[in-house]
Amino acid sequence: QDAQPGGTLRILGTEDLDHFDPTSAALVTTNNFLRAVSRQLISYEASTDETVRITPKGDLATEVPQPTDDGLTYTFKLRQGAQWNAPSGARQITSADLERGFKRMCNPALGSAALTYYSSLVAGMAEFCDGFSKVEPTVEAMKAYIEGNDIIGIETPDDETVVIKLTQRAGDFIYMLSLATSAPAPIEVLDYLPDGPDYRSNFIASGPYTPGAYTPDSSLQLVRNPAWTADSDPLRKAYVDQIDITFGLTVDAIMQQLQSGDGDMTYDVTIPPAILSMLTAQGDEKLMTVSSGNTNFIFINTVSGNNNGALKDLKVRQALNYAVDKAAIVQQMGGPSIAKPVNGIFGLGVLGYHEFDLYPSPDAKGDPEKAKALLAEAGFPNGITLKMPFRNKGNEPAVAQTIQASMAKAGITLELTPVAPADYYSKFMTNPVNTQEGTWDIAPVGWTPDWAGGSARSVFQPQFSYDGTHQTYNYTDYNNDKANELGQQAINATTPEEVGALWAQVDELVMADAPVVPLIANLIVLYHGAAVQNFQPYSIGVQGDWTNVWLQQ
Amino acid sequence: MAVLEARHLSVDIPTEDGVIHAVRDVSFALEAGELFGIAGESGSGKSVLTQAILGLLPNAIVTGDVLFEGRNLLGLKPAELQSIRGSRIGMIFQDPMSSLHPYYTVGSQITEMIHAHEKVEKTVARRRAIDLLARVGISEADRRFDSFPHQFSGGMRQRVMIAMALILNPPLVIADEPTTALDVTVQAQIVALLDEMRRERGTTVVMITHDLGLLSSIADHVMVMYAGRRMELGPSSALFAAPAHPYTAGLLASSPANYEAGAELVPIPGRPPSLLDTPKGCVFAPRCASALPRCTTEAPPLRVFSDGLQSLCWLEGPPADAAASVAGIAKAPAADEIVVKVEGVRLTYGGGSLFNPGAGFEVLKGIDLELHRGETLGLVGESGCGKSTFARVLAGLIPMTHGKVSLLGRDLGSLDGRAWQAMRREVQLVFQNPFGALNPRRRVGAIIGDPYRIHSLASGTERKREVQRLMELVGLNPEHYNRFPAEFSGGQRQRIGIARALALNPSLIIYDEPVSALDVSIQAQVLNLMRSLQRDLDLTYLFISHDLAVVRHVCDRIAVMQAGQIVELADAETLYRAPQHPYTRTLLAASVTTPPRHPAAGRTLVSSNVVEVA
Amino acid sequence: MSTQAAIPVIQRGSLALTLRRLGRDPAIIAALVFIVLVVLFALSAPWISALTGHSAIEQYRDTGLSEMGLPVAPNAEFLFGTDHLGRDVLVRLAYGAQVSLTVGVLAAVVAALIGITVGMVAGYFGGWVDTVLSRAMDLVMSVPFLLCALALVSVFGPSLSLSIGVIVFFSWTTMGRVIRGQMMSLRRQEFVEASRSLGAGPLSIMFIDILPNLSVPIIVYTTMMIPGSIVFEATLSFLGMGIVPPAPSWGGMLADAAGNSLYLVASWLVLIPGLALLFTTLAFNILGDGLRDALDPRGRPVRRKPK
Amino acid sequence: MIRYLLGRVAFGALILLTLSMFVFFLFFVAPGDPARMVAGDKATETQLIQIRTNLGLDRPIHEQYLSFLGKAVTGDLGFSYRNQQPVAKLIFNRLPATLSLVVGGVLVWLAVGIPIGIMSARHPGAVRDRLGQGFILIGLSFPTFVLGMMSLYLFYFLPRQSGFMLFPAGGFKPFLPNPAIWAWHLILPWTTLALTTAAVYARLTRGQMLEVMGEDYIRTARAKGLSERKVVWKHGMRATLTPLATQLGADIALLLGGAIVIEQVYGLQGVGALAVQAVANQDRPIIIGVVLLGGLFIVVANIIVDIAYVLLDPRVR
Ligand SMILES: Nc1ncnc2c1ncn2[C@@H]1O[C@H](COP(=O)(O)OP(=O)(O)OP(=O)(O)O)[C@@H](O)[C@H]1O
Ligand SMILES: Nc1ncnc2c1ncn2[C@@H]1O[C@H](COP(=O)(O)OP(=O)(O)OP(=O)(O)O)[C@@H](O)[C@H]1O
Ligand SMILES: [Mg+2]
Ligand SMILES: [Mg+2]
Predict the structure, then answer these.
(1) Domain count, chain D
(2) What is the pLDDT of residue A35?
(3) Between the CA atoms of B218, B224, B225 and B230, what dihedral angle is there, to the nearest 10 degrees?
(4) Ligand 1 centre and the CA of C304: distance in Å?
(5) Are residues D70 and D95 in the same domain?
(6) Residues D159 and D29 reside in one and the same domain
C-alpha cells in the first residue's frame, strides 16, 4: 500500500521531555523528538531489520567517510539544502554550525551528558572545555567564549567541509556522531541560556518539524518546518503534517487510548506485562520487540558510612549478588521472551556481551545460603538492613518488592522508599551529597547504551570509570585501573572479535568487584495504534520513527 | 338539606406501634349556613376527622360515607376530589405560622388557589385577592400582596388563611382550631371575622376548637369528641347549659372559669386512653365519675333527647354537676414579708453587640413589683410582651440592663459568684412546655434529684429518699423513679417540674404558663396541686399566663403587662370587676366563658339504641 | 393518681424499640453480620496466614505466577488468586482489612471526639467563641482536602499515622457542625434553662444535661464517618500516598491492580478488594442509616402528628 | 445584603489567606532543596547560591511569604521548579479538562440525584423507595476509583474484547472542533464522578422532601385543590431547593477531590492530574498554586451559594 501523507500523529506519554536543546538531551526518548526537529551529522535509517537499523548513514554528511591518517582524521562533506529554520529565513547549515555544536557541549551551565566521550577523543576539545569551565555563567560571557575560542581538532576549511581530528583511534566514533548531543547549533542560540525558556520559545529547527504550541508537562505540538526540504534528507520522509505529543498520562490511560484509537504511538511507555500477554495471546501484529542493549541492575553505594560502611566490603556486595533472584525479576517483567537474566554490565546486542556468571545460582534463582555465609564472613551473621529507593512508577514497585522478597531470604532487610520517577535520577541518585550521606544503600537503575552496536564504551565509561572528577552516572566513583586499561585497548581495537573479547574481560573484571548487581537485560516492546503504517524502529530512540510513519486515514 | 353529612365515619391510621383508631363511627350533618362546632381534648380526633373528609390523610384507612352536595367524598377519584378542595370546601388550619408556604408571597398563594380552579386573567385574580385581603382586615392590601408570610404577624397570617379559604366562595369552610396559636385579643378578632364572613356569604362553617367558651358563644350545633368517638352532639345552647354526657360535664367542670376564685377545681381524673386498642365498653368509663358497672363491659347506646341532644352513654339522666358542689378552700392571707422587690428593671436584647452596636431591642421597660410571702401574683399579657423575659431576669438567667432586684432583702446585683449560687436555691422556675422542660434522656429520679446534685446537698440513698418524698408530695408514684419523662403524660410531667422546683425549698416559684399546654381536664389537676402545695408549704408564686380565667382563679393579685410595662396591678377580683386600663379591658372582653349550667328543663329521652362499633 | 390505668406509652428512643426497629430491617441485620464477619476476618489474618501457609508479603513465584509473570486466578491453593507479585490475595486481603478497619474506626472516632468537643463548646458558649470555632470549621471545609492531603503526605512521607491524621483533620468538621447545630437548639431548651436556674455550671450542663441528648447524632455520625475514612485511606493509597509497600491495604491492592492495567487481565484483583471495600463501606452506611432511622424517627416516613 | 455579601467576600479572602499560609509554611518545613530541583544534576555550589538568591530562598520566611502573596494577588503564582514555566499558565492550560469534567459531573449528578430522591420520597416505604435508597447507599459507598475502574472494565474493556467500542477509555478531547467527541469521551468520567455524589443528593433530596411533605403548608396546598404534581414539584420542590443549594456549596470540596481521582483513572489532563504530578515531582509552586486555586474555587462557590441562599429564601432577605 502506498504511503498516505498528511494527518496528525498523536503520541502519548507520561513525562515531558527532559530538554529541547539537543546538546543537553539525555533521555533515550528525547532522541525521537530530536530526530524530528534536528539533524545530525550521522544517523540511522529506521528499519525493522536489525542490521540496517544500526548501520550508520549520512544525515547532514553526504556519506559516512572512511577515516584517514591511521584512523585519526574524519572528513565530512555537508549536504546542501539542509537548512536552519532561522528567524531571518531559511539558511544553509554550515560547518561552523557543526563546530559550534561541539563547543556547546562543554558548557558548564548545561552541557552534554556524553561530553567525556568526545572530549577524550577530539583533539583540543578537553582544553576548550577546561577554558569554558572558568567562564562566568552568563549568556554574554558564554557567547564570547564560544565565538572567541576554537577546538583545534575541528577544522572547517569551507562552509561545507568539516575535518575532525582524534587523539586516538576509535572504532565507535562514527556511532557517537549519531547522537543529537553533537548536532550542529545555529549562531542565534548563543543568545539564550542553554535550554532556557527563551531557547525553547525560539527553537530553531533543522529537521522536518519544528515545535509549535508547547504546554509543559501537558502537550507539545510539532508542525512542519518550512525550511526543511525532502530532497535534502535521505532518512526522514515526514509523511504526517503534524505531531501532537500529550504528556502526563498514566500508563493505563495511554494503553487504553492507544487501543481505542485516541492515540497512535507511545512516547515513553513500557508496555505492562498484563497488556503484553493479552496482546500476545491475541496475536496482535502491532506488537514488536527490539533490543536496545538495555540492562537493569542494582547500584551499590560504597561511599556512605551506613552500617559501618558494610557495603565497602566486597563480601557483602558479593552476598547481594548471590541473594537476588533474577529469575523472579524476569518473570515479573513478562517472562523470558521479554527479559533475560544478566550477570555482567553489558546487555544483549552490545559488542562485549558474553555469558558468564561470577555468582552463580541454580536457574538464576539466587543462592540465599551462599549470601548468608558471605554476610556472616563479613561480620553480619544476623543479616543487614539496607535502604533502597525505587521509582514509584510502572513495573518498578513490583521489581523493588521482588528484590526485597529475595533479599529477605538471605537475611537482608530492605527498607523501601517510593520516589517520584522524575526525581529519582536527577534529584536523588545523581546528587553526590545524597550518596555520601547514605540516603540510599542500593538502588535499582537501568542503562541503555547511548548508541547502537559497538556501544560498550557508552556503558562502561560513564558508569564504571573514574578519572578524578565525579561523573554523573558513576554514582560511587567506581574505578578499576585494569578495566580502564583494557577498555582503552578495546576502544582502539579495530576488529569486532578483538573488541568483543576485550570488553568481555572488562566485564568480568568489573563484576569481580561487584559494584553492582546485574539483574536483567530487557527487550523493548513496542506497540502502536491501528492507523499507524510503516512503523520502523529508530535505533537510538528505541521507538517507531515519527518521521517515517504514515497514517491510514 | 344537609350540606355535609358524615355517616359512620371511622379513620384508622396504621403506624409503627399498631393501628391508631383515630376516629370511630362518627356521624353528623350540617345544615346550610350554620356554624358547627367540634370540641374535644387534644388527640380526640378532631383534626383527623376533618382531614379524612377531604382525603388529606394519605395513609389513613377511612370507612363510612361522607356526603357532600350529593356525592360521597370518600369514593371520589383524586381529580374530582381536587376540584372540590378549595373551591367547594375551604380549609383553615390551626397554625398560621406553618400553614403558609414560606417561600411564596401571600398574594401568590391566594391567586394560586383561583388559578387552580378557574380560568382567569392574572390581573383579575390579583384584584380579587387584594379585595378580599382588604376585607379580612389587611391594611394596604395592595402593597402587602407581595409580602412573604414571615413579614406578617400570626394574626395577619391567619387572616390570609381565611382569605384563601374564602376566595372562591365555597359553600363549606372547615376551620381547624383557627385561633389556638393566637393571642386572646387577636383570637377574638379572628372569630368575629369568621362569623362576619359566614353571615355575609351564607357559608356553612365547621369550627374545631377545644375552647368550650368560644363554642358556646358562636356555635349553632356542637359535637364533643373523646378518643375518636362522638360523645355528644346537639344544639349548642342545650349542650352547654345541661350536658347529657358525663364527659362534657366533666370538661365544663374542669374549667376554672366556672368557679368562684379560689375554689377547688374538679378535674376529670386520669388521662385519655391510647387509641391503639378498642375497649369493650365505653372509652370514657375509666375516668367517668358517673360510671356504672356495665360501662366497662358494654358499648354505650346512643341516647337521643327531646331537645336535640344525642349522647353516647348509658346514663339516662343528667350527670352530676360536680363544680357547683365544691366549696372554696380557705387560704392563709399573705404575710407582710416581702420576698422579692423589683425596681425599675429594664432589659435590652442584642444591644451594643459587636456587629450592630446600639441596635438593641428593649423588652422590659422599667418594671416595679413586690411579692409577699405566701401570695400568688399573676402576670398576664400578650405574647411577646416580655413575661418570660421577666421571669428569666428574676431567676437570674439573664442579667438585666438596668434596675434592681432584691430577694429576701438582698440586692442580687451585689452578689458574688458564690452567693449567687446559694441564692439560686431561693428562686425556682416551672416552665410552660412539659416536654421541653425535662431532659428526655435522663431518668425522672435524676431530674428531680438534680438540685441536690448541683448543690451537693444529698447523695446516694439519701437523695433517692428525698426524691421519692417529693414525688409523693406532687402525686407521682415514687416507684416510677427510674422512668424517662417520655413515659409520663403532660400533666405528670408538670408535676415532675414542680417537684424539682420544690426540692430546695425556694422562697419563690415562678410558673411560666404551667398549664397552657395542657388540656382542661389535666389543667385542673395541676392547678389544684399548685394550690394545695402553696397552702401546705406556704409558698410564694409568680404565675404567668395569658388565660385570664386561670389567673383569676389562682392568683391573689394580678399584674397586667403590655409591651414590657406593667400597666395595671390590682387584687384579682378588683381587676376583674373594675379594670382600669383600657388594655385590661380589651383582654377581659376578649375572653369568653361558658354560660353557667342550669338543670335541663323538660328534657326527655326520645330514643336509645346500641350502636355496633365496627 | 395511683388509680391511673396502666396505659402503654410510646417510648421513642427506648432501647427495646430501637432494637426492634433495627431488627425488623433485614438489610441492617445483613450489614451488621457483614461487619462482624469483616472484623473477624481481619482479626483472623494471622490464622488465615497459618492455615494457607502463605504470608502476606511472600511471593509464590512458582505456583502463584505464570511464566510471563501474570497472577493466577483463584484456585485451590490461592482461594482468591494471587497478585502481580505472586502473593496470596486472600492473606493480603485479611491483613489489609486490619489496616482499613483500624484507619476507618480510629480516624472516625478521633475525628468524632474532636468534632464533639469543638461543636459542643461552640454551640454552648455561642458568641465570639462560636464565631471563632465556626469560622475555623468553615476554613477547614473550604480546603480542597484531597489536594492538601496529597501535599501533606508528600511533605512528611507516607505513613499510617499520617494517613489517620490527615483523615481526622479533614473530617472532624462534619461532626463539629452537626453537634454545634444540635447544641444550639438544645441549649435553648427549657430543661437547660432549668438546670441553669438550679445553679448548674457549664460543664455540668454540657456533660450531664446535653451530652446524653447528643447520643443519637454522635452514634449515627460516627458510624457514618467510618466508611468515609476507609474510602479516604483507600484513595490515598490508590494515589500512592498511603502506607508503604509491601504492607497490604485495600486501597494499595487496588492501586497495584490499576497500576499496570493488570486488572484488565486479572479482574479478581479489582473485584476482590474492590468489593470488600464496597461492601464494608456499604455495610457501615446501611448501619448508620439504620441507626439514624431507628434512633431518630424524624427522618422516617412516619406521619407527623398534626399540631 | 451588600454588607452581608461584603462580609462573605472578606471571610473568603481570609480563608484563602490562611490557606496560603498553611501551604506556604508547610512547604517551608518540608525537606529538600528547591534550588537543587531548579538547577538540575550538575549544579555547582555557586550556581545553587545564585538560584537561591534568584528565588529569594535566602530571605526570611515571612518576607518570602509576603512577596509570594503580593504576587499571588496579581495572579502571579511563581514558576514551576521543574520547567520554569509560570504556574498560573500551567494551571490555566489544565482548566478546560477539569472544568469540563466538573461542570458536566455536577449536571449529571443533579439530573440523576434529585429525581431519584423525589421519587423515593414520594413513595416512602414502597419498592421504588427501596430501590432509590439502594441506589443511594451503594452510590455513597462506592469509592470513586473503584467505580471508575469497574466502569472502565465493564464499559470499555469488555465491549472492546468482544470487538466493539462502547465508550472510549478516557482522554480529554477539547470541546471545540467536535463537541460530540468531547462529550463521548467524558461520559464515563462524568457518570463515575456523578454517581457517588448523586447519591448524596438523592439522599438529601429524599430526606428534605420527606420533611417538607410533612409540613403544614403542603397540607394547605393539597387543601387548595392543587394537583399532586403541583404540590410536589412546586410547593415541595421549592422548599427543598434551599438546602440543596447549600449542600452544593459544601460539595465543591468533595468534587475537587473526586476530580483528582477521576482524572487519574481516566487519564484526563486536568488540574488534579497536574497536582498529583506536582506532588510526585515535589514541584512546590505548582502544589501551592493548585491548592490555592482549589481554595478559591470553594470560596467562590460558597459565596455564590450564599447569594443563592439569600435569593432563594425570602426569610433571610
Ligand atoms: N398522620 C398520623 N399518623 C398517626 N397518628 C396520627 C396521625 N394524625 C393524627 N394521629 C393521631 O390520631 C389521634 C387524633 O389526632 P387529631 O390530630 O385528630 O387530634 P385533635 O383532636 O385534632 O387534637 P389537637 O387538639 O391536639 O389538634 C392522635 O392520637 C394522633 O396522635
Ligand atoms: N434571646 C432573645 N433575644 C432577642 N429577643 C428575644 C430573646 N428572647 C425573647 N426575645 C423577644 O423579647 C420579647 C419578649 O419575649 P418573651 O418570651 O418574654 O415574651 P412572653 O411575654 O413570654 O411571650 P409568650 O406569651 O409568647 O411566651 C419578644 O418579642 C421576643 O421576641
Ligand atoms: Mg387538631
Ligand atoms: Mg413566654
Answers:
(1) 2
(2) 93
(3) -120
(4) 9
(5) no
(6) no
- Of residues D217, D225, D313, nearest to B98 (C-beta): D217
DSSP tag of B299 = P
Residues D237 and D110 in one domain: yes
Q: Are D52 and D179 within one domain?
A: no
Backbone angles phi and psi of B305, in degrees to 5: -105, 165
Looking at the fold, whether D42 and D107 belong to one and the same domain comes out as no
In this predicted model, what pLDDT tens digit does every residue of B414-448 receive, in sequence order?
777 777 777 888 888 888 777 788 888 888 888 99
What lines the ligand 1 site, CB under 6 Å?
A: B 13, 15, 20, 22, 40, 42-48, 57, 210, 275; C 303, 305-307
Task: Identify whether residues D302 and D219 lie together within a single domain.
Answer: yes
- Using one digit for the tens of pLDDT, what is the confidence trace for B526-542? 888 888 888 888 889 99
Q: Verify whether the Cβ–Cβ distance C5 to B441 is below 8 Å.
A: no
DSSP H/E element including A243 = strand A242-246
CA-wise closest residue to B565 among B385, B393, B371, B402? B385
What backbone torsions phi and psi does residue B578 show, to the nearest 5 degrees? -130, 70
Task: Give per-residue pLDDT as tens, D82-117.
Answer: 767 788 888 888 888 888 888 888 888 888 888 888
Tell me which DSSP letter residue A26 carries: -
Q: Quick check: is B153 in a domain?
A: yes
Strand ordering across the sheet containing A265-266: A209-215, A219-224, A242-246, A8-12, A265-266
From the list A410, A296, A329, A363, the residue with the least C-alpha distance to C85 is A329
What CATH number does the domain containing D171 carry?
1.10.3720.10
Residue D82 belongs to a domain: no
Q: What is the mean pLDDT of residues B363-379?
A: 88
The grid coordinates listed for B455 are 448543690
Question: Which residue's alpha carbon is at the smallest distance from atom 28 of ligand 2?
Answer: B384
pLDDT exceeds 60 at position C269: yes
Q: How far apart are CA B281 and CA B301, in angstroms?
A: 10
The mean pLDDT of D68-74, rounded to a whole number, is 83
Q: How far apart are CA B495 and CA A473, in angstroms?
A: 89
pTM of the model: 0.79
ipTM of the complex: 0.76
Range of the domain at B155: 98-168
Q: Which of D21, D51, D74 is the last residue of a domain?
A: D74
Does B68 map to a domain? Answer: no
Tens of pLDDT, residues B122-143: 999 999 999 888 888 888 888 8
- Contacts of range A489-493, beta carbons closer than 8 Å, 24 or more positions apart: A490/A352, A490/A456, A490/A457, A491/A168, A491/A169, A491/A170, A491/A171, A491/A172, A491/A457, A492/A168, A492/A169, A492/A170, A492/A171, A493/A171
Per-residue confidence (pLDDT) for residue A285, from 0 to 100: 83
Within this chain, do residues D142 and D178 fall inside the same structural domain, yes or no? Answer: yes
Residue D127: domain span: 88-312
3-state secondary structure of A90: strand
Query: Which pLDDT score, from 0 to 100, does residue A144 have?
Result: 92
Judged by average pLDDT, the poorest of B537-546, C9-18, C252-261, D4-13 is C9-18
Chain-chain contact of A252 with C259 (C-beta, under 8 angstroms): yes
- With cut-offs at 50, 70 and 90, classify the pLDDT of residue C188: confident
Flag if B487 and C189 touch (Cβ within 8 Å): no
How far CA D52 is from CA of D37, D77, D81, in Å, comes to 11, 17, 12
C-alpha cell at B506: 425556694
Residues of chain D contacting residue C152, judged by C-beta atoms under 8 Å apart: 26
Domain count, chain B: 2
Question: Quick one: which of B216, B223, B273 has its CA closest to B244?
Answer: B223
Tally B–D CB contacts below 8 A: 73
pLDDT value of position B587: 84
Distance B28 CA to ligand 3 centre (A): 18
φ, ψ for residue B559 (rounded to 5)? -110, 130
Amino acid at C284: F
Q: Show the domains of chain C with their CATH numbers.
A: 24-297 (1.10.3720.10)
